[in-house]
Amino acid sequence: MAIRLGSTRMLTDSSGEVTGTFSYTALGRPASSTGTETTPLGYAGQLTNESSGLQYLRARVYDPGTGQFLSRDPMSDVTGVAYAYAGNNPINGYDPSGLCNANPFSGGFWTEGNCISESPANPIPYYEREIEAWEAGCSYWESIQYGFKGAAVLAADSAGLYGVVRAAAGRAAAAGVDVVFGHGSRHLAGTGLAQAEVEAAIQSQVASQMARASAAGGFWGRVVVNGQTISYRAYVLPDGTVNVGTYYVVP
Amino acid sequence: MIMALLRQEFPGRQALREQVSSLAVAPIDVEGSLRLEAEGPRAEVRERVPVEAMVEDVDGVTIHVLLHVVDGLMSELEIYKDDLKAPRRELSPDDFRLVVF
Q1: Shortest CA distance to A184 belongs to which of A247, A251, A232?
Q2: Which chain B residues are Cβ-neighbours of A218 within 8 angstroms?
Q3: CA distance linking residue A243 with residue A234, whole number of Å
Q4: Which of A115, A199, B41, B43 could lock B12 by a disulfide, CB 3.0 to 4.6 Å apart?
Q5: How far is the C-alpha of A108 from the C-alpha of A38, rounded, in Å?
C-alpha cells in the first residue's frame, strides 16, 4: 500500500492481513518498520538497494541519507540545482527520473500536451530529456525547459540527426521489440556521442536480430555510430523484452 | 573483488595489479557498481573491458562484473544483472567465472 508521494507504507498478504509497515524521514531514509516482510520499492515507491539504501532514479542515484544525488544534474545550468533532491522540498515533491522535481499536488503536474517535443528541429539529447521528464511526471514547465535549452543550441547543431534517430526507433517499434537499457549511457562521457543516437542504433540492430528469430538468452553485438564502434550486451527475457545491460565504446 | 578479477592472466594485468594500491572508489548505482580512480603504470589492454566475472544470483539470473579500463587506468567496476534488477546475493569472488579478452 502506497500513499501520498507513493512511498510503500504497508504490505499485506492475500487475505488483507498486514505483514509489514514502513515509515520514512522527510528525505526518504527508513525511520521505522514492523514485521518481517520487505520490498525493494521504498520511499516514493522507487527501487531501493537493501544494503546501501541508495535509490535508483533512472538518470541518477539518490542517497536518502544525505538528501543528495550522487552525480550532478546534467542540466544544472538550467535548473540551478546540482545535487539537491526534489528542489529541497521533499515534503511536497519527489523526483522519479532524477531529472526533475515532480510535485503531484501542483496544477502543472496534470497539464496535458507538449508542443515543444513535436518540433522536428529539437536537438536529440534535450528532446529525450524533455520527454523523459514529462513521462516521469514532471510539470509542464519543468519539462519544457529542456526543449528551450535544445532550441538554444540548435543553431550550432542542425545535422538532421532527429530524423535518423526517429527512423531507427521507429523500425524497432515496428518490429514490436521492447528494448530496455541499463548502465551504458555513462560510458559515453568524452566520446562526443549522444545517448539517444547510440541507443537508437542498438535498438534498431536488436530489433533486426529479433525479427530474424536468431536471438535468445544472452548475446553481444556491435554497432558503429559516427565512426565509433560500440559493443553492447543484451539479454532476452521470457516475455520478449530485450535488456541491454551495458554498452561501451571499443577503443 | 578487483584482485579476484586480476587473478587470471591477460595483457595489461600486471600494470592493473600495481594500480590497485592507489585506487579511490565511489558508488555510482544501486547494483553496486563503483567509479574507480587509479594511478600507476598504464596497462596495455586489448579491450576497454579486459576481464569480466559472471556469477548466478539466487534466482539463477546471471550477474556480470566488468572491469573498465580507460587510457590504461581502471575507471569502473560495473555490476549488472541480465534482468536489470538489483542483485540479491552478496558477491563472493570465490564463485566468479572469469572471462578474459
Answers
A1: A247
A2: 62, 82
A3: 5
A4: B43
A5: 34
Q: Which residues of B touch A47 (CB under 8 A)?
A: 30, 86
Which chain B positions have a beta carbon within 8 Å of A52's beta carbon?
27, 30, 32
Residue A166 CB neighbours (<10 A): 15
Average pLDDT of the residues in A205-228: 74
- Residues of chain A whose C-beta is under 8 A from some C-beta in B? 40, 47-50, 52, 54-56, 61, 70-71, 180, 182-183, 186-187, 218, 231, 233, 235, 237, 243, 245-246, 248-251
> Would you tell me the crossing angle of helices A124-135 and A140-153 to the nearest 10 degrees?
180
Q: How far is CA B89 from the centre of its chain?
A: 17
CA distance A86 to A88: 5
Query: What is the DSSP annotation of B47-58?
Result: SSS-EEEEEE-T
What gap in Å lies between CA A69 and CA A209, rounded to an integer? 37
User: For residue range B24-82, what is the model confidence (pLDDT) as tens digits?
Assistant: 999 888 888 999 999 999 999 988 999 999 999 998 889 999 999 999 999 999 999 99
pLDDT in tens, B39-48: 999 999 988 9
